[in-house]
């Protein structure tokens, strides 16, 4: 009975590992968040390790499954069979089925331990430093070397290691960009570190991977990998501090939005570089107009979506902590014009 249960367990284990691999492998191009489509060295090493484990498990599944099937068919009880000869213990078999798993586990353990050490620190060099802070339900992304902060979008240069420090402002989150690296927990009162590197320019989707409350599934983000010169240009544009003045100068509507923002409730929670708005409760909005999405990756950053968000955040993102501030549609339009001009 024990042997039988052991075999079934191993079949289930083999299938559980294999099925997602087959499904995702089949439609990988349509899955921008698949760890089976690595886009950088860290994710690639981790996939290699996954594959070693997968193939060893597959080998165990085939051997044990075949032996089980053979035994079930070959030694079926036939009509008229009596009780078979009773045996107890078989030293040779027991030694074999102890030794073989030890060897197989060593095949998995050696590369796992080696890779844990290899991936613990980024290769030394001109690495990009980023500090990520998880909030319910969005991400602050700080560039300490350059002294600015953005939210839910991390721009990085291709071909350069990015060293990330992960902290939480409230509960436990988990930072995961499947195509670039495995997940790392984001824990209050603790700074975890990780690194990754993107080979090609592109947008890599990320997702909070630790249940953290109502909008956990809506706690998304993007890693945007740029060519080195585009990245340098972005850093340069981002460190100029008069964005709010420029935004307000784009038209009367934006100018009115600027005043509403600075004199209303917005400035108490949000920050815009070079202005009296220095709130730290919500996302830094200094470069809001250049972001691809709003509400932590939920919606495209369009005027209509932004207006709906300001009107009633909870209606478009369950549990959102930003309150709905009563104001006229005209005022919302002015705020939208100002925020979208923040580039
Ligand atoms: Cu943050 Cu789940």
Walkthrough of the structure:
- There is one protein chain.
- With 343 residues, the protein is α+β, with helices and mostly antiparallel strands.
- Helix content is 43%, strand content 19%.
- It is built from 10 helices and 12 strands.
- Strands 3-2-1-5-8 form a 5-stranded mixed beta sheet. The protein has a 5-stranded mixed beta sheet with strand order 4-10-9-6-7. Strands 11-12 form a two-stranded antiparallel ribbon.
- α1 (2-26) packs across α2 (41-74), α6 (252-263) packs across α10 and α8 packs across α10 (329-340).
- Mean pLDDT is 89; it is low at 1-10 and 24-28.
- Dinuclear copper ion is lined by residues 134, 137, 173, 208, 210-212, 216, 219.
- Residues 134, 137, 173, 208, 210-212, 216, 219 line the site of dinuclear copper ion.
Keywords:
single chain, 343 residues, alpha+beta, 5-stranded mixed beta sheet, 10 helices, 12 strands, elongated, disordered N terminus, binds dinuclear copper ion
What is shown here, in short?
This protein has helices at residues 2-26, 41-74, 91-120, 228-238, 243-248, 252-263, 266-269, 303-311, 313-316, 329-340, and strands at 128-135, 138-143, 148-151, 153-157, 162-168, 173-177, 181-186, 192-196, 202-208, 220-226, 293-294, 299-300.
